[in-house]
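Figure 3 (text version): structure tokens given as input.
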């Protein structure tokens, strides 16, 4: 039977909750993370899938945020090179939007504000007739290239949860917090799951509810909170690949916003994001206006116009931004704010703090976790020191950090297995691909091939080691294999899972 008393109860299985659970477990705290749905089932799997400093934030004078994000980009590139990789971005120059001197100045600062960087610095390029202008209208003759990185966002959450569990944390999904109260200097929390209702005790509570952060606060016995959340929907469209080069584009618009066009899953381009304030945030979906906005902006740059019929997939996520009073959703800070509420006087040796997270971005989740635990340190005087900087995530210990080299090793080690299967495993699992493959030697050893390089052996691993239970868990979060699959193939995955999950 599981222990029902913990140091830390973390509510929310997005990137911030998983990151804090990992960090805390590594510092010797007993941790329980609960998530009412699946890991990364909301905001953390619907991002633009970038690890970046946020070039446009410089225009809003968010220098500390950009510097921290760029420094974290370096840390994460080393921690998870299998799911995070450098990506070059081309910014076509539109003189009537931003003068060249302004762009050069911004990129000069972007190259340097984060400290020592390993990625290439920015430079100017010719576009027309050159590879840097692939897919663009010929009227774009010059541009600028800078470096950032892309990430498999949902896998980043899963890997943090895996590492947290390996360090002693309990991860419990499909488990909702229904209420919590302070009792004798501790939190007494009521949880609901398929097995019924139970009560657990914790010395501190972390509210990583994302868009539901205020709902979580309403379920616990704290006083009124002055901070508020701005729910901003970001939507994306996915279309067939708009060019064959490996770089992405960052497109400027007359409303001062930018939209990315990013190579995605080899065969596609990901275009986004929008910024729309919303009140309803449970089941976000792209609107017709958002589709028109993204298509219109993209078509202002692309040589081959895109139409609605080209869209193969859309997704939307709601970002729980800290409400700083900005009128324009695009101007709302992407920085995070942490608030701790605790009893003024200890009861039975404890003050039962609750730490709530407002805002944040996926790039800075690790630093956010460090800051959260620094805020909680007075309540845990024996907590160990920081450790996550320089620590790899599961599967991230690639020899030399070389993705291509690791894939070559897998191909040499498993010469009879399909290269596309090995490539997918290397990308998703890094060195843990060996755990997935085990003693497999021939395609038959991998079990059913469901298409899109997804096999029964990998699904079995996702169920046993990554908490996968449904087809959505497998196809859209632990992998992105659902995108190129037919509906019939997705149904086969669902049927298979029904035989593997009790």
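Below: residues designed for each position.
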């Amino acid at each position: 039977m599981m222990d029902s008393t913990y140091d830390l109860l973390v509510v929310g299985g997005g990137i911030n909750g998983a990151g804090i659970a990992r960090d805390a477990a590594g510092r010797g705290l007993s941790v329980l993370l609960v998530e009412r749905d699946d890991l990364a089932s909301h905001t953390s799997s619907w991002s633009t899938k970038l690890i970046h400093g946020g070039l446009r934030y410089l225009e809003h004078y968010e220098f500390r945020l950009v510097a921290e994000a760029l420094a974290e980009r370096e840390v994460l590139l080393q921690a998870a090179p299998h799911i995070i990789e450098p990506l070059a971005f081309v910014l076509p120059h539109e003189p009537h939007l931003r003068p060249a001197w302004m762009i050069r100045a911004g990129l000069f600062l972007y190259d340097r504000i984060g400290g020592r960087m390993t990625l290439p610095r920015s430079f100017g390029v010719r576009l027309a007739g050159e590879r840097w202008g692939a897919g663009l209208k010929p009227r774009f003759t010059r541009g600028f290239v800078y470096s950032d990185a892309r990430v498999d966002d949902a896998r980043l959450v899963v890997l943090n949860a895996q590492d947290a569990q390996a360090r002693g944390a309990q991860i419990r999904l499909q488990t909702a917090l229904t209420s919590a109260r302070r009792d004798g200097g501790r939190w007494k929390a009521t949880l609901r799951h398929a097995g019924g209702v139970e009560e657990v005790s914790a010395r501190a509570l972390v509210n990583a509810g994302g868009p539901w952060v205020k709902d979580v606060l309403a379920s616990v016995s704290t006083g009124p909170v002055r901070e508020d959340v701005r729910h901003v929907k970001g939507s994306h469209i996915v279309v067939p690949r708009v060019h064959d080069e490996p770089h992405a584009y960052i497109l400027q618009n007359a409303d001062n916003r930018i939209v990315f066009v990013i190579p995605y899953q080899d065969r596609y381009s990901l275009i986004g994001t929008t910024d729309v304030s919303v009140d309803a945030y449970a089941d976000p979906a792209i609107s017709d206006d958002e589709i028109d906005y993204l298509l219109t902006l993209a078509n202002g740059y692309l040589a081959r116009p895109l139409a609605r019929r080209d869209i193969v997939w859309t997704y939307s996520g709601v970002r729980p931004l800290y409400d700083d009073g900005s009128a324009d959703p695009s101007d709302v800070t992407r920085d995070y704010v942490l608030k701790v509420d605790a009893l003024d006087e200890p009861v039975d040796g404890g003050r039962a703090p609750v730490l709530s997270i407002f805002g944040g971005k996926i790039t800075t989740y690790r630093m956010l976790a460090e800051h959260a635990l620094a805020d909680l340190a007075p309540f845990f005087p024996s907590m160990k020191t920081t450790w996550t900087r320089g620590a790899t995530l599961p599967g991230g210990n690639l020899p030399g950090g070389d993705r291509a080299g690791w894939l070559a090793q897998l191909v040499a080690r498993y010469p009879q297995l399909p290269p596309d299967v090995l490539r997918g495993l290397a990308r998703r699992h890094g060195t843990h691909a060996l755990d997935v493959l085990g003693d497999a030697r021939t395609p038959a050893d991998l079990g059913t091939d469901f298409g899109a390089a997804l096999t029964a052996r990998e699904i079995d691993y996702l169920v046993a080691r990554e908490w996968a239970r449904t087809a959505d868990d497998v196809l859209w979060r632990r992998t992105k294999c659902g995108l190129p699959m037919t509906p019939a193939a997705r149904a086969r995955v669902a049927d298979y899972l029904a035989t593997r999950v009790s």
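The CA atoms of residues 79 and 392 lie 4 Å apart.
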